[in-house]
Amino acid sequence: MIGNLIIVSSPSGGGKGTLIREILQTTPDIMFSVSYTTRAMRGGEQDGREYFFVDVPKFKELIAAGEFLEYAEVHGNLYGTSLSQVKKLTESGKDVLLEVDVQGAKNMLEKVPDAVSIFILPPSFATLETRLRMRATESSGDLQVRLRNSFQEVREFNKFRFVVVNDDLETAVEEMRTIIRAERHRTNRQDAAICGILDGFDAAMHRFEKEFD
Ligand code: ADP
Ligand code: 5GP
Q: What's this model's pTM, rounded to 2 decimal places?
């Protein structure tokens, strides 16, 4: 049984990091795929937990080695999804959460059309700006870049299968969890279990026919 790939995107500050953390803590059988980035580590971050932090030459080496399922330049830094990690995690049967920007999501959906895609939309621009300022992790120049990029990014919502409006956090987490659970019940995801049940029905049918013929 192969796990679902779940792509989560939003403008910077939309809340995807927060929602993903909550989902990982409260939902069984789901893992996070740690991406590579060339951006500087923020206070509180840990190499190998939020990202694998590498310099540009190392990132280019990884591109040449075919290590990325997709990669993109986002807000002036390089980010890439590790193909080997995604393969290992999905093959273990776990669902895998990927946090990528909208270009990354588009590239990924071309390669893996069956992936589940969720766009996190902040309730308004004003809320997005307040949350990003309160997070206080960017210089004012970087903050401007992220806010300016959000105008284009929100227009990409219709490339995604689901949209979750991140107003009240608890509600948004519950909505995301509902999507993840529902996706596990798609007919084609349950082939093995369904086959087992139907084999049982076949055996019962033969017994039934013998008994009543
Ligand atoms: P992203 O990962 O999309 O850049 P974050 O998860 O870092 O965004 O969220 C940006 C900021 O907004 C963080 O400081 C986070 O604590 C806060 N935040 C996220 N979701 C909510 C919410 N529903 N209500 C209030 N604050 C939120
Ligand atoms: P941040 O620097 O705030 O952690 O992330 C900036 C942006 O890069 C976010 O939109 C985030 O989703 C995106 N990002 C993180 N990892 C990847 C990745 O592996 N690939 C792509 N394309 N974008 C990523």
A: 0.93
